[in-house]
Design a protein that fits this description.
Elements (H helix, E strand, L loop, with lengths): L12 E2 L2 E2 L15 H12 L6 H5 L5 H28 L4 H9 L1 H34 L3 H18 L1 H29 L16 H11 L1 H5 L2 H5 L11 H32 L17 H16 L2 H19 L12 H18 L6 H30 L12 H4 L2 H16 L13 H19 L12 H12 L1
């Protein structure tokens, strides 16, 4: 069954709301540049919660903490870059592409799981913003849970185009407000930097990298194509500088705020271990008058910056849910309203999670998130790079299979499940290796290796011609279909 509407009918925005859902983005709407990619993801990543990285890495000391962040970037750079290119080559979310890797039903099940994981992140950010604004205004925190959530819902209803505008034009406010708080942090408090350079307490490299990958780059990776599908179409004829720019823009945008804001959170945590990372609620003793007003304004702006990442938690959550339920609509004209309605309902759900106190469960939440997302993403990327980009057209992703074989592809599901089990439970007597190597990443590699073995021994594997110009051929087909 083919339920994808014709491309000419794919309206991105109607009555002010984005209604494209998870259908392909028309070519005339695909114009984001690498610089816009970078700003978009820097704003999505950078917010008032991010300095908590300094708290989580505090025992490592500043030098090792910075090294850990750089290593996390290097680990996630290629997966994030490939997913970014995927969105430019075929303008649909990655979970739509996963229909061919994992099977239609399995991809739908993953989509539902990822919907709730994104809502969890929505709740985390909404909580931090509400805590800051409630503290600064001495008003009930419940009000701020609702106000922050409502603003985020409105932005996501407007869609990716307006999100990009909002991120780009509010970027200076975030940079200035964080810079102001950083200035007052170092001028108000006495911080002995030399004592913080080396390890301060117990830590493991594996645990630190697990946190960073789940908190930042690999947790964001599968979502990147949700935005990169609005980038200029991939072409084998584009110059190497442009191609490289698109490839690295998203991962660099994600990790730069983690580095800079994490360092500031590290110093803040040294003043008050456990909570000092949240520099927006520091007391700054002795500061009064106009300086106090400037600090309060900067803290409010920093709190409002949480709208950025939360919009990019709610937006993919909507895409994930729509990926799962899209077959219910068939070719109904009412499908266009699925995106606004889903955004509204999911946003309300995220607010409820914030009220219920998900912030207190951040470590356990991130462990679950990375255990599921990492193996799924690694297998999807391999299948895309090695197979799907050569052999599939856009319309293939919208055909509901009539047999169980293509609805549940055990050749991908079983390796991904094994990787998830290892990421959660470890490997028993050999768990000591996770003091040095991230457990979730290890599970992902095991799952990927199992999938590669299955991929090469399965009898129905498509044999590709070595002379095939994959990028050019794929893009000509994609452009012809549009």
């Amino acid at each position: 069954m083919d339920f994808m509407p014709k491309h000419s009918d794919n309206t991105v925005v109607e009555d002010g709301f984005e209604v494209i859902g998870v259908n392909p983005i028309p070519k005339n709407e695909r114009n984001m540049s690498p610089w816009k990619f970078f700003i978009f993801w820097a704003m999505a990543s950078g917010a008032a919660l991010v300095p908590i990285a300094g708290k989580e890495l505090y025992n490592m000391g500043l030098i090792y903490a910075i090294i850990a962040i750089v290593i996390a970037l290097l680990i996630g750079l290629i997966p994030a870059g490939l997913i970014s290119d995927m969105g430019r080559q075929i303008p649909v979310p990655s979970l739509v592409v996963a229909r061919k890797t994992y099977g239609y039903m399995t991809s739908g099940a993953y989509s539902l799981i990822f919907t709730f994981l994104n809502l969890g992140y929505f709740g985390l950010n909404d909580s931090v913003g509400a805590v800051i604004l409630s503290s600064l205004t001495h008003s009930p925190i419940l009000y701020w849970y609702i106000i922050m959530g409502a603003i985020q819902i409105l932005l996501v209803l407007l869609g990716a185009k307006w999100l990009e505008y909002f991120f780009r034009y509010t970027a200076p406010l975030l940079v200035i407000s964080f810079g102001i708080l950083t200035y007052f942090l170092f001028t108000t408090y006495t911080i002995n930097v030399s004592n913080l350079l080396n390890p301060i307490g117990k830590y493991t490299w594996g645990g630190a990298l697990d946190f960073l990958l789940g908190f930042s780059i690999l947790a964001w990776t599968y979502k990147i194509s949700t935005q990169s599908r609005f980038g200029r179409p991939f072409s084998g004829r584009e110059n190497k500088k442009t191609r490289a720019g698109y490839f690295v823009a998203s991962p660099l945008g994600i990790m730069l705020p983690v580095l800079l804001m994490g360092i500031v959170g590290f110093f803040g945590n040294s003043l008050n271990p456990g909570s000092g990372w949240n520099i927006a609620v520091l007391s700054f003793p002795g500061v009064s008058g106009i300086d106090r007003i400037i600090i309060i304004i900067a803290a409010i702006l920093l709190a409002l910056s949480l709208i950025h990442p939360n919009a990019m938690n709610l937006y993919p959550a909507t895409a994930d849910l729509l990926t799962s339920i899209q077959p219910l609509f068939g070719k109904s004209v009412h499908e266009k309203w699925a995106q606004p309605v889903a955004t509204l309902l999911l946003g309300i759900g995220g607010i409820i999670l914030a009220i219920e106190g998900i912030l207190a469960r951040i470590s356990g939440f991130i462990d679950i998130l990375e255990a599921i997302i990492f193996p799924f993403t690694f297998i999807l990327i391999f299948d895309w790079f090695k197979n799907l980009r050569h052999t599939t057209r856009i319309g293939d992703y919208y055909k509901i299979p009539r047999n169980i074989k293509n609805n549940i592809k055990f050749g991908a599901l079983i390796p991904a499940s094994i990787g998830t089990v290892i990421a959660i439970f470890g490997i028993g007597p050999y768990d000591y290796i996770f003091a040095y190597f991230p457990k979730a990443l290890f599970g992902s590699f095991i799952g990927l290796l199992l999938y590669i073995v299955i991929y090469y021994i399965r009898p129905d594997r498509v044999q590709l011609s070595e002379k095939q110009n994959d990028y050019d051929r794929f893009n000509m087909e994609a452009e012809d279909s549009q």
